[in-house]
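Reviewer has doubts. Consider these tokens.
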Amino acid sequence: MGRRTTLSVWQSLLDHPSFQANVIESDRPIAGHKILACGMGVFVTKEFADKEIKNPRSGLNSRIIAAIVAGESVVLSRNQIGAGNAGVGLDFVNMYGTWRDGIMNASQLAEVQALLGSSFVEHFAGYRFNRVLKEAIGQSRIALALATGTYRVIAEFPESESALAVATPDSVSAAPYSVAAALYRYQPPVLRLRPAEQTLLAAALVGKTDAELSVDLGLSIEAIKKRWMSIFDRVDQFKPEILSPSDVDSDGRGPQKRHRVVAYIRSHPEELRPFSWDMKKR
């Protein structure tokens, strides 16, 4: 599998609903580098996770990429993620969580590692996690995985200086104050938001105006207003206590209504995640 093919797979993952990535940058370049660290990962099928845990080998990420190239992707679709959130949970591969070696002092490195952890929670809070797999490469990465208290090393690969570490609900419960513990405190959504409504709310979380949302989402202002009205209707139906009777203005929308809904969503990220209501009925 060549470099061009591998890069093509990575590019295809950037827009995949199962994939998330984050980059840690410095305002002032350190040793000529602005990008200091990055993290990324994907939700994978239970069958793939079972196989990797039963027969651990080095090259975890390469097998995910090879499966995609072969047309047998183990990366979950949006519907499969929704089924996992409504069911027994999701298996996840933390593909990378790495930083530049040798250019940061101890304080800078500690800050970068903390940001990697907090950004991971920001991206993935609200999903129903089952197992998290990670092939840590290098002694410092292995040590950091173990230091979290949530990962357990199940196999070491001396030839590649790596190890397969796995976090499970049981191992995370043993470290209740860890970063990962926040991800495992799952609550099912209640608002039954449509994907289009989730998209609007996700964009609104950063404080953008309707005019800015219109540009970002490629929608007219009128379409943005209609989408807000649909969201407020769902809140009225499924969780009316979010709103106050005084949250009303001439167009039925009201800045206070919007503020209260966005505040609720910010503390309930599960409302923005795929969820299969058909699975819930079973």
